Predict the 3D structure of the following.
Amino acid sequence: MSAPLKKPIEEFIGADITATMRTIGANARAAARILATLGAVEKKHAIAAMARAIRAATNATLTANREDVAEAEKAGATAAFIDRLRLDEKRIAAMADGVDIVAALPDPVGKVISGWERPNGMRIEQVRVPLGVIGIIYESRPNVTADAGALGLKAGNAVILRGGSDSFLSSRAIHAAIATGLADAGVPGTAIQLVPTRDRDAVGLMLAGLDGAIDVIVPRGGKGLVARVQAEARLPVFAHLDGNCHVYVDKAADPEMAKSIVLNSKMRRTGVCGAAETLLVDKGAAPTLLIPLVRMLIEAGCEVRGDRDTQAADPRVKGATDEDWITEYLDAIIAVKVVDGVDAAIAHVEQYGSHHTDAIVTADRAAAEKFLDRIDSAIVLHNASTQFADGGEFGFGAEIGIATGRLHARGPVGVEQLTTFKYRVRGSGQTRP
Amino acid sequence: MSAPLKKPIEEFIGADITATMRTIGANARAAARILATLGAVEKKHAIAAMARAIRAATNATLTANREDVAEAEKAGATAAFIDRLRLDEKRIAAMADGVDIVAALPDPVGKVISGWERPNGMRIEQVRVPLGVIGIIYESRPNVTADAGALGLKAGNAVILRGGSDSFLSSRAIHAAIATGLADAGVPGTAIQLVPTRDRDAVGLMLAGLDGAIDVIVPRGGKGLVARVQAEARLPVFAHLDGNCHVYVDKAADPEMAKSIVLNSKMRRTGVCGAAETLLVDKGAAPTLLIPLVRMLIEAGCEVRGDRDTQAADPRVKGATDEDWITEYLDAIIAVKVVDGVDAAIAHVEQYGSHHTDAIVTADRAAAEKFLDRIDSAIVLHNASTQFADGGEFGFGAEIGIATGRLHARGPVGVEQLTTFKYRVRGSGQTRP
């Protein structure tokens, strides 16, 4: 979350935030029309030019970032907060490399999703087109300015970026570089706009849609931000609030595989949304696997909170309450429960889960298929770690986040899910009888 | 629109509409879980059983409908309104046949949209799953009860129906038949629920989402209803407000084809959303085509409102105002304008259109491709009538409506667009490095 900084709004271009934001919205809509007509090569060149300009502006960006960091330190921000905010040459290089990766992705626009011919001879094609205008609301990580801008543009969309107040100067410096890159490539600068003020009213205006100028909002940040966006937005949101992910170890699980998947799902990185938060152990597997699994987790530095059976398995296990089954710890803590087979595991996940990512470990194909079928989550895995919940790991090249909503985008949101489609119909004079 | 009827709310089951609607929402969510596990054959049988039960309940439905019609007549409803409301044996038979058509459609659920293997050996599949719970809000046509219920169920969704006050008894009779059919097939009756009251607060509660129980709202009715739903809904809506469709006749158009497409687009049925409302004539085509096109339209009984050039072409042409370019007449009226080539046509459509359906008539392939590319509408056609904007004509078998939103559903919304997807990942013990 943001440290409680207050700054004079010297950046604010004009007295009326509503008018400013309306102009930004209209600019974006106009840019979107132009972007929709750009070819794959033009977009690729423009994004590559952005990467070059980001590299060229390293010093200016570092200077701006030092100011942001100094203010955050003065305001008493946590070390973790400062770490998210701070840039160095390596991070700027990585940001530019990430933009180059997006530049090199296959262009999704114009791809024919499906095509068919009608009995009257009309040929119908469903073809990918840009979504339109994407609003990105983010917090302290200034690199989102480049990531999200590039990904949105790759899909032919105009992007409105609203960065965190605390990273305002950094984001502005990165955005200035992006604008230079776009200008070099002959693409309108309004393709990627940064809200030029820390005024928090800008967020509310974006969540109201700027008179229909924004098609979708993507929040990038902590739960506080995502919850606010989901609660207030009057337009579609691609986001997840919770990643309460489960691993279910079935009685037919290979013991070594179970241990390796559980350890990786929980402990590879505990702060990512695909980290497992609850381990469910089949009561048929408990006699042989519960003790070693719990011991392994504790020895890896993980706090275990268990039901009665799990507490009986190891004296170091704390008691789990109902609260634990719904908690996304994002920390080295796991809730563990013994369940009666795959049906009980499914019931638990459906009752307490967040429809993000859930895995089963088993050699029983029927149990696996049931789990994959019945669990209503964006990602369901058989014999693989929940930490694969990531656009890169899915082969998308880059992602703007993970969505747990059910409409349009679900799971890792890559460049393809930032498009929509239209129908192109080619006839030879057909009229409807 | 509804005639201003007032009735005692004798149908209202319980004193608290909020509690009633919350129960309906929870029922639907629970039913959706069960429906997601049904196989294609079970759903097909259930929908066919609905059709049989609708036929068997013909007399009861006609009795209920006579009451609705009598009240509407007493309240002074228009003839068109009564016609939409009135059922007869033929209409009930057609309704049941429509349900049978839905039963016979290919099942969209479980279809693998795409699949790929990762370098680490994981196999990822994107697979179609039901959307969840669909709320349908409709007006005087009681047949929507059957149509929308069947289509939603085919896609594995639970459906909450909120029919018009004026067709309440008819909808209730049809819904009772549907419930019998579902019971015969062993499918939970909560799969398709009808809001059991005329209380208009029910609509507001549905538009607020019933505590997240509804995933999407589909309004079926006039513009007043659609506008209210789009303005008030706090959740996604599949709908179109306006179908301001254009036909552009290019200078390279075949004259006979142009006449036939213009006449069909405007006059086949004037009250459908795919009817053309504006004709754009290339100034290169005007010398030879403007007079015959205008004469043809007027002689077919269509009022023509034109720009100065069009008024000069025929003394019967009235003057068009700016209002005409944005008006969906849904009547035998057309606005006509002479434009300077395909670029000007595109600019006009993008400025005044409603992103529904637009057509170009030309033998010039480059002009056609430009129009198909640049026009940002759900459906763009080359050398075919705008009246093909219809799920049946697209080969979808049935549609729940046409959407002009950009997310998830666009154009005719068939059974496939009432689904979403999830990712199914099959591994062999993979962990993330």
Remarks:
- Chain A is about 40% helix and 20% strand.
- The radius of gyration of chain A is 24 Å.
